[in-house]
Input
Amino acid sequence: MDTIKIMIDGIETDIAKGTTVLEAARDLGIHIPSLCYMKGINHSSSCRVCVVEVGPRLIASCTLKAEEGMKIQTNTKKVREARRTSVELLLSDHDRECLSCSRSGGCELQTVSNDLNIRNVTYYGEKSSQVKDYTSPSIVRDASKCILCGRCVGACGTLQTVNAISFAKRGFDTVISTAFGRSLDESTCVNCGQCIMACPVGALTEHENINDVWNALSDPSKVVVVQTAPAVRVALGEEFGMPVGTRVTGKMTAALRKLGFDKVFDTNFGADLTIMEEGTELISRLNSGQNLPLMTSCCPGWVKFMEHNFPNMLDNLSTCKSPHEMEGAMVKSYFAKKMGIDPKSIVVVSIMPCTAKKFEGSREELSNESMQDVDWVLTTRELAAMIKEAGIDFVNLKGEAFDSPIGEGSGAAVIFGATGGVAEAALRTVFELTSGKELETIEYTAVRGMDGIKENIIELPNGKKIRTAVVHGLGNARKLMEAMERGEKSYDFMEVMACSGGCITGGGQPIVDARRSEQMDIKALRAKAIYTEDEAQTVRKSHKNPFITALYEEFLGAPNSHLAHELLHTHYVKRSKF
Ligand code: FES
Output
């Protein structure tokens, strides 16, 4: 490794060539504030909050590559004043309704202002765009809070290659805009919410449905059923100060009962059902050779990305509804019939790590007899807000179990929350269903891990080989899809998750600020918790879940049956590329 010698605040240090001054200073424990910088996502050096003095010049340290012999000052009067001026200018054009802002307490602009001891904003004048866009069922944009840092543009473009938003206009009129200034619901946005996770302030938030759920809970004529996705239970605790990667399954279930939900179900049941339906679909496509590769359809961000960008390959998507939609459909049919409840009086609420699930819940093709399968979707953050609003002492709650009969899932279902999980769960079932043999080693470690694209050939006992690709992050998905279009790649089975790491880092999860996300591997910690949860289950294969067996015996008949198709499968629509 080539190293160079530099001096920061009088401390001489050897660093790797190519290191930025910001990185070098932070490695020495010297705090330089930053705002627009987000490692790997945005290096635009637009905010000037991280300036340092190099000779007579003030330079943004986040993009300044250190050079041999460079002498850097990070804490001079000139540096402090320049940083304060930059932040004051941002504040002068910012809607400072901090007390009622959803990011209050977690806002990076607020933190930087406090760190720089800014108590007065001395600049006044005209405000730039104040436009608020509530048209998307998933994401709300509020330009009055936008500081034009560009982190959302980086997340949407560089990371996800969706490019639904970018900078538009010039100078004081500069805004973050969709193509042709359309509303977000008319854009190519796939609702993944990675822009929310990147936003340092409250300019991008989820479209809240908390009050809709409170209203349902206080309506005595409604039976309100809640279900929770696997990734929620390994992140919810963070909203209550618990360490990243803490599993809070039992506390979450107890909190949901305290909030007043009539039944607390686990989306893992829906995930097991997905494996039964999708596994059967995979076996049938492998036998017929048609519409291969089978592409998973659990992730609504990925599905909408396909609809906009690769409409010619929509037949490759599994026709299976996603797990929470399957579960919603079963609540309003099987469960309602079993319990003698009018399905029209049931309200299904899904707690999801994902903002795209809000859009998915509203898709008209995900309904039956004019009832949506799922009525409301709340993110992990919204659930935490409800628990706080209700004054529940979450940390000290005693764990409780999910309700039956459709509340329990297998370990295979839990791992849906991390990249590779759906593929692994499907392989556990497909192996045993095609061979009639018990798997000796249940873990398919080859599909695990955080490599963006994982390719494997899985051999079944009958000699059949399944060429598998596991992809996470839409940027990686686009690369692979384009390679397939050029004929360079071909597979039998593809698992795709829109968000890097899978649902554990979905757009509805607790937000981790840019600095903290550099200091710890959030994805790895949450994924570890997911796999530990799997290991703790007695049933770890979807087809061995006794409640799933009962569902087929009592109601659906068999996987991919006529009734299963009617209730559990769907179709997709071509959407505009621009
Ligand atoms: Fe470096 Fe914004 S210019 S953090």
In short: The first strand starts at residue 3 and ends at 8. The pocket of FE2/S2 (inorganic) cluster is lined by residues 34-37, 45-50, 60, 62 (CB under 6 Å). The mean pLDDT is 94.
